[in-house]
Design goal:
Mean pLDDT of chain A: 97
Radius of gyration of chain B: 18 Å
Shape of chain A: globular
Largest sheet of chain A: 6 strands, parallel
Helix content of chain B: 25-40%
Distance between the termini of chain A: 72 Å
Low-confidence stretches of chain B: none
Strand content of chain B: 35-45%
Structural class of chain A: alpha/beta
Oligomer: heterodimer
Order of helices and strands of chain B: EHEEHEEHEEHE
Distance between the termini of chain B: 21 Å
Largest interface: A-B, 20 and 19 residues
Low-confidence stretches of chain A: none
Strand order of the largest sheet of chain A: 3-2-4-5-7-6
Number of strands of chain B: 8
Strand order of the largest sheet of chain B: 2-3-1-4
Shape of chain B: elongated
């Protein structure tokens, strides 16, 4: 039987077991939406803005490990989606984004709502397609899902001209995809793995440097086991929070610009850094010439272009982290003597004791770090935490007691303000049985606050905790520290939304909090409401995120206390 | 430092833009670029000449491999390298001198019209540079270079 291109899109989504599509209709994608209207196989969630829709698909993908799907129209539809796509690309999140396009006959004529969509998405997608012939559509759909989830995952964009979605042909969904140009390496080279294991055995001051790839390759269990067996100290990047439990005795905390002193000194003093799906981001390394001067590097990554990109790698291993570690495990079990690292661990533990993550708590004014710690005490252990971007994001990464991978959902690579709330809605849709809490700032939350209505309409009760300091806090902190306190356009106190009324006007429940007791009451009440909740917490206005490695400084030059400035 | 690579790509929509964007995104200039389909296959060969730091170039090669339609990136220093150039002169010149010069660079007069004579030569890019210096005195009206093509030995 012949099908239209639009029907093929629906059939393909069903074949890929898609259970939810986050989108926004428009002129050029209407043929597909007409088919969405007729089907009952998956849910369509109508966002209020295309950026929100893509962040929802992204939050869904991060929470579930499945491919997130988003659908938008041509022109402004796809340009609004770009920030979401770039966010997913920066953190290697598997998404398929389908956009409508003007008819093939109108492409290139500056038609109404026409943009060169594949040209615009090319730098921020793993791959993209413009489908010019309906016959190619089933293969393109299959290939898009395959590319999104295989190898190093990432967003894939399909641009569909309106006449292609209207055209008819026979539908045959391919069984599998075989691309001669794309063969990701999953299994690591045996000799390279053995050499790296030998280096680990010989090292005196090794450290595991765990990155987001550990989450993507589902390697957390084996990493926990290896850390337990070898007793080698470990640090985590922002993207890897939760791979090791917060109370793991070998975890030194987060590394990098706002990492713990012990974690950064471990990297600085190590003689061997074993990178597990981490990419030596500039927020981690600090000044690159001074980074880990005495260390050899073992770098395990599925993407060969990551290896040697920033630091010289002595032991490169290309492959899927989990498979590589499975192959390496026997060598480590046999050869590594954990007692050898006793002295090294003692030094680092002393750093941990001397310079713990800390803040000066107060009863006069609420400290943002206290809110995060208190939330960790009140909510169930298997909560999903999402964040926006800014000071609250770093405080959440530092102070929240993470126990599992995929528990923290945050925009790491791109640092997208406005990410947290829609990502929380997507995560909630993906894992309905879990509580989802979003930490946001009074700056970030405004960027996609319209999605409260989406949460209300589809009953996606997430709790937003706004750490409200009436500043664009992180920029304010840098202005204070590095621009002589010239607070250019970061003070938001003159005109501020009433977040309680704003939330309530869109069907959410709101709480205004300026005392510690009020926060505890508000959070406990929000937990019983089964509604989107906004807890607007007035916090200490001038609290800084510390410790801090000043930009382009070596890790060892950390500002640990406020008086270090 | 001059670098030449051949990139074998699948013939598909936008593949040239993908490859060129990779250079642009890394702030790398392309000195010359030639593209043509490889006969009896679904592939094309792009020959890219560029100049720059070996470390950045290593990244470019790795990043090119990441592009889905890229089949192979060939980096060889042992190859035959040729470029074509066409030069238009006024007919007023001494044609036998021009013809003699062109022959030294594997070329000849390709066309003679009422006002102009067109010469084409095919040679290594450095020799093409020399040819262009040598013909200056004939005051060329127009010069077109093809960009370099290479094949591994």
């Amino acid at each position: 039987m012949k099908m239209t291109g639009a029907q093929m899109v629906i059939e393909s989504l069903i074949k890929e077991n898609v259970e939810v599509v986050f989108g926004y209709p428009g002129g050029a994608i209407m043929n597909v939406y007409d088919e969405i209207y007729k089907q009952k196989s998956f849910q369509h969630i109508l966002a209020k803005h295309e950026q929100g829709a893509v962040h929802m698909a992204d939050g869904y993908a991060r929470a579930t490990g499945k491919v997130g799907v988003s659908m938008v129209t041509s022109g402004p539809g796809i340009t609004n989606a770009i920030t979401g796509i770039a966010t997913a690309y920066a953190d290697s999140i598997p998404l398929v984004i389908i956009s409508g396009q003007v008819p093939t006959t109108a492409i290139g004529t500056d038609a109404f709502q026409e943009v060169d969509a594949v040209g615009i998405t090319r730098p921020v997608t793993k791959h993209n397609f413009l489908v010019k012939d309906v016959k190619d559509l089933p293969y393109v759909m299959k290939e898009a899902f395959y590319l999104a989830r295989s190898g190093r995952p990432g967003p894939v964009h399909i641009d569909l001209p309106k006449d292609v979605t209207a055209a008819k042909t026979f539908f045959k969904y391919p069984e599998k995809i075989d691309l001669i140009t794309y063969k990701p390496t999953y299994k690591g080279n045996a000799r390279a793995i053995k050499r790296a294991a030998e280096a680990i055995k010989k090292a005196k001051k090794p450290v595991f440097y765990i990155g987001g790839g550990a989450v993507l390759s589902t390697a957390a269990d084996i990493i926990r086991e290896i850390v337990k067996i070898t007793k080698i100290p470990a640090v985590e990047t922002l993207m890897a929070r939760g791979v090791l439990r917060f109370d793991c005795p070998f975890l030194l905390g987060m590394v990098g610009m706002h990492g713990s002193y012990a974690a950064n000194m471990a990297m600085n003093d190590a003689d061997l850094i074993i990178s597990l799906g981490a990419r030596f981001d500039d927020r981690v390394t600090g000044k690159i010439d001074e980074f880990a001067k005495n260390a050899d590097i073992v770098h395990i990554d599925i993407d060969p272009s990551q290896i040697g990109k920033v630091v010289k790698t002595k032991y490169p291993i290309v492959g899927d982290l989990k498979l590589v570690l499975e192959d390496m495990m026997p060598f480590l079990v046999e050869g590594v003597k954990p007692e050898k690292f006793e002295e090294w661990r003692e030094i680092l533990n002393r750093y941990k004791e001397l310079y713990p993550l800390a803040y000066n708590d107060s009863d006069e004014v609420i400290k943002p770090q206290w809110v995060i710690q208190k939330t960790g005490e009140i909510v169930p252990e298997d909560v999903i935490i999402t964040t926006d971007v800014g000071q609250h994001q770093m405080w959440a990464a530092q102070f929240y007691p993470f126990t599992k991978p995929r528990q923290m959902i945050t925009s790491g690579g791109l640092g997208t303000m406005g990410y947290g709330f829609p990502a929380a809605l997507g995560a909630k849709r993906g894992v309905k049985e879990k509580l989802v809490v979003n930490f946001s700032g009074d700056g970030s939350i405004m960027m996609n606050i319209q999605e409260v209505l989406t949460g209300y309409k589809y009953n996606l009760p997430v709790i937003n905790i706004i750490l409200n300091n009436n500043y664009l806090g992180m920029v304010r902190q840098w202005q204070s520290m590095f621009y002589n306190d010239r607070l250019s356009e970061t003070d938001l106190s003159d005109v501020q939304a009433d977040f309680v009324e704003l939330a309530e006007s869109m069907g959410a429940v709101g709480y205004r909090v300026s005392k510690k007791d009020e926060f505890i009451d508000a959070l406990n009440d929000a937990l019983t409401q089964n509604k989107v909740a906004f807890i607007d917490v007035q916090v200490d206005r001038r609290e800084d995120v510390l410790p801090m490695v000043p930009p382009n400084s070596p890790l060892k030059n950390m500002l640990v206390f406020k008086e270090d400035k | 430092m001059k670098r030449i690579i051949s990139v074998i790509v699948e013939n598909e929509h936008g593949v040239l833009a993908r490859v060129v964007n990779m250079f642009a995104a890394r702030g790398y200039n392309i000195t010359s670029l030639t593209v043509a389909p490889i006969p009896n296959t679904e592939f094309s060969r792009m020959t890219i000449m560029s100049e720059g730091d070996p470390k950045v170039f290593e990244q470019i090669v790795k990043q090119l491999y990441k592009l889905i339609p890229v089949y192979k990136v060939i980096e060889s220093s042992d190859f035959i390298e040729k470029e074509m150039t066409m030069v238009k002169f006024s007919i007023e010149n001494n044609l036998s001198d021009i013809d003699a010069l062109a022959r030294c660079y594997n070329g000849s007069i390709s066309n003679v019209g009422e006002k102009h004579v067109i010469v084409s030569v095919v040679d290594r890019p450095e020799r093409i540079d020399n040819f262009l210096k040598a013909i200056k005195r004939f005051k060329p009206v127009d010069i077109v270079r093809s960009g370099v093509s290479v094949i591994e030995r």
